[in-house]
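=== RUN LOG ===
request id: a7f3
mode: sequence -> structure
chains: 1
length: 214
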Amino acid sequence: MNIDDIKSVLNVSAGPSLRCNYLVTVCPPFLLKLPEFLGGQYGGAAVSFVGARQVSILALNASLPGRVISTTPHRMYGTVREMPYGVLYAPMQITFLCTNSMLERTLFNIWQENIMNHKSYYMNYYNDYVGSIVIQKMSDSKDVGSLAGEVVSTYVLEEAYPKIIAEQELSYGSKNEYMTLTVEFSYARWRNTLSDLETFAKAAASVALDNIVG
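=== RESULT ===
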């Protein structure tokens, strides 16, 4: 492999991908009911903005989700093989920048209150408190006529809910530091809605076939 081959691959693929171009959308299951949860003190429009847009815009970091195939050792004629039997999804941590109103934390506090009533300790029905997290990787290319800013791939975390709201440290010595909020989400599974996945697979298969024939 020489440097020209690497350059060729990068040129065809619009260069290496940057980690800073992404969009996170948090979708609580009760978004449209937030005004009644808050007693109407912020108004429906303001709360909807916080839930659907502000929290998503202020997501400082996130990750594209991973997946682990669970395996168990299986011996066959003296050889031990790791045989798959299930799948595991690691929790997702997302860190949000906090505004002075602290409505970001209020949103997730309400979401957790919707999971369990902290006065009666009764758990709500699962389908009533799970929502979704949408993570989109955006195109990085800056060339004229390129797909810059367009969605390259979308990952949807299904049946998600905030399992952990991390503590937020307060300090007189942190005058010039912004507050952030880290939330850990549990979810059942993720799905990739990459629209070009099938086209990409066909193109890759075609290239592989050409190489074999050639």
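=== NOTES ===
The longest helix spans residues 197-213.
The chain has six helices and nine strands.
=== END ===
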